[in-house]
Write a structure and sequence with these properties.
Elements lengths: L11 H16 L12 E6 L5 H12 L3 E5 L12 H11 L2 E5 L3 H10 L4 E3 L7 H15 L6 E5 L4 H12 L3 E5 L8 H13 L3 E5 L2 H5 L4 E4 L12 H8 L6 H6 L5 E4 L11 H4 L6 H20 L13
Helix pairs in contact: 1-5, 1-12, 2-12, 3-4, 5-6, 5-12, 6-7
The site of phosphoric acid mono(formamide)ester has 8 residues, from helix 2.
């Protein structure tokens, strides 16, 4: 497996390997500081980022390399040089390419033309790196991922899709509590359900936030208006997604020791109540820290050729 484009491209063994590697790097952050000595990794961000960009830059440093941060305006890509030509050129300079952009197809084109690993740092459809940090955080706080009950509430966006695919791979039970108009595409749910059931887990979809939250080990949410969504949708989204806010009342339906998760940045008072976000059950800062340890693990595993991957499903 050369690239990390979607969580569903990983095998179950790959996820296990990456989580174990991330734990090792967390315990011993500079264990492989020679891996990228004298080498570079390019980090291209066409959308804003705090966690992903800084964690990947820090990860490159921990592996002994130099991160080169780029935006569309820095490159001829922004003036019409093709994705494929850019990919061929970057492959001559760097050991890996981390890319945050809009269209999933652009990342796939880049990966096909590049001879180096390409890592999806968020597209409109997927956020695989976030999903690995989410699993690591759940593992740390719940002890086991198998049969762990995760409830994702709100917009069925890229974060929800990657979380669902990650949960399916580890045999967790995930419920997506989303209004029908903001739910994950049925074909993606179907593919994840097949994977989950093969691993002893389940994928459930409901438009009832209380049903989703009841008995959960973790309640998870994300912003209601993602990067790339039109601002004009803000009011209607707030109205339709309002009942899915993770409030103290909703947390009370989950297990007494359930955790609150959010990929961040958060909008307190919208998708999450301030008292939950800053309360004792919130693990969002651990989740954010784990972006770093999983970023180191992803770079290490791809550069060293440690992942087997599998043929992506057409519906993934
Ligand atoms: N969660 C996440 O991807 O954060 P950034 O947008 O700050 O990278």
């Amino acid at each position: 497996m050369k690239d990390l484009i979607r969580t569903s491209d990983l095998s179950r063994a790959d996820v296990k390997y990456l989580l174990a590697r991330a734990q090792k790097f967390k315990a011993n952050p500079h264990a492989r500081r020679n891996l990228l000595a004298g080498e570079s990794v390019c980090l291209y961000f066409a959308k804003p980022s705090t966690r992903t960009r800084v964690s990947f830059e820090a990860a490159v440093n921990r592996l002994g390399g130099c991160g080169i941060s780029l935006s569309p305006n820095d490159m001829q890509l922004g003036r019409g040089e093709t994705i494929e030509d850019t990919a061929r050129i970057i492959s001559r300079y760097a050991k890996a390419f981390v890319i945050r952009t809009f269209k999933d197809d652009d990342v796939e084109r880049f990966a096909r033309a590049a001879s180096i690993p390409v890592i999806n740092a968020l597209t409109d459809g997927h956020h695989p790196c976030q999903s690995l940090a989410d699993l690591l955080t759940l593992l740390e706080h719940r002890g086991s991922l198998k049969k762990c009950r995760i409830a994702y509430l709100g917009d069925g966006n890229n974060v929800a899709i990657s979380l669902m695919q990650a949960a399916a791979l580890v045999g967790a039970d995930i419920t997506l509590g989303c209004p029908a108009s903001y739910s994950v595409k049925p074909e993606l749910v179907r593919a994840a359900r097949i994977e989950a059931e093969a691993n002893g887990g389940s994928v459930t979809v409901t438009d009832d936030p209380s049903a989703a939250a009841r008995g959960a080990d973790a309640l998870y949410t994300d912003v209601w208006l993602s990067m790339g969504d039109p601002d004009a949708e803000k009011e209607v989204r707030q109205r339709e997604l309002g009942p899915y806010q993770i409030s103290e009342q909703l947390m009370a339906l989950a297990k007494p020791d359930a955790v609150f998760m959010h990929c961040l940045p958060a909008h307190r008072g919208e998708e999450v109540a301030e008292a939950v976000m800053d309360g004792p059950r919130s693990v969002v800062w651990d989740q954010a820290e784990n972006r770093l340890h999983t970023s180191v693990a992803v770079l290490y595993a791809l550069i060293e050729g440690k992942l087997e991957g599998r043929a992506p499903s057409k519906s993934a």
